[in-house]
Structure to design on (286 residues):
């Protein structure tokens, strides 16, 4: 991966350059702050769009503010040509501040457990996550040259950018008992998006009537998100930083069956047994 480096046991790449991963300690939590936390390719863009649209109904939103002009949720740990870093711009983001991260739980643990930072954590079946992550690695901007089975060796070696997805999912799942943490499964979002939108709205105390829920669901379809993302990912020259159709590829359940071999399936199943307690392995990863 271009510009790859290791910090505190986690692999990062060029999109993290120039960003102090530990800057989160400088973040002064406001009561209306919301953090979207996910392992990579676990529904980040989908839930991020739900939250972006939901923010427009937030009771603390200024009457003269157009929430949608804020665009995509900024990352804590990345700075992209179309997306300023959240921590560097923390004082310029109007409340309520909605931000996102792929960082391991320990990087935000103090803010979550001691300062009450609200978190929406999205978890996805790990084989589907890895399938989607492989195709993400193949984006032109990242340029991974190998096939899936070569990519899977990075999984075995614990060399994925952003860290160990099994550990990350386990840690957020174990934090689900905290009153300020809501864990959502990607598969729940696929089954009944409207129910998840209502659940998130209730958790964040954002009032949503049936029309608002319906509008959010409609605007978070794959087609609508591709249009929205194409508008939001342009650099200063008006060129798209990524191929939106590659980035939002399928979003389906079970695509791993088309690419995993038996040995890779067994490796992931063993990781599930190793990292997740029985409740997680039956409710999140089956």
């Amino acid at each position: 991966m271009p510009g790859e480096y290791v910090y505190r046991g986690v692999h990062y790449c060029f999109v993290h350059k120039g960003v102090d991963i530990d800057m989160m300690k400088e973040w002064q939590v406001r009561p209306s702050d919301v953090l979207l936390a996910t392992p990579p390719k676990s529904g980040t863009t989908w839930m991020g769009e739900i939250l972006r649209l939901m923010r427009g109904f937030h009771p603390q939103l200024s009457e003269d503010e157009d929430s949608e002009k804020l665009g995509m949720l900024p990352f804590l740990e990345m700075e992209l040509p179309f997306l300023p870093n959240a921590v560097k711009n923390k004082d310029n983001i109007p409340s309520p501040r909605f931000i996102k991260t792929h960082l391991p739980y320990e990087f935000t643990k103090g803010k979550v457990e001691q300062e009450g930072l609200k978190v929406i954590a999205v978890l996805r079946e790990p084989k589907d996550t890895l399938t989607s992550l492989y195709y993400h690695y193949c984006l032109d901007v990242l340029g991974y040259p190998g096939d899936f089975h070569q990519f899977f060796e990075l999984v075995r070696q614990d060399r994925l950018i952003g860290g160990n997805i099994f550990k990350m999912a386990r840690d957020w799942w174990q934090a689900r008992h905290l009153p300020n943490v809501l864990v959502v499964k990607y598969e729940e979002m696929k089954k009944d998006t409207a129910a998840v939108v209502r659940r998130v709205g209730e958790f964040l105390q954002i009032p949503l009537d049936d029309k608002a829920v319906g509008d959010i669901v409609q605007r978070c379809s794959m087609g609508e998100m591709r249009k929205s993302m194409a508008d939001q990912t342009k650099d200063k020259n008006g060129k798209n930083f990524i191929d939106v159709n590659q980035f939002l590829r399928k979003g389906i359940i079970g695509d791993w069956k088309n690419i995993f071999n038996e040995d890779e399936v067994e490796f992931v199943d063993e990781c599930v047994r190793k990292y997740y307690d029985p409740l997680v392995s039956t409710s999140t990863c089956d």
Remarks:
- The mean pLDDT is 84.
- Residues 10 and 55 are 32 Å apart (CA to CA).
- The longest strand covers residues 118-123.
- The first helix runs from residue 44 to 55.
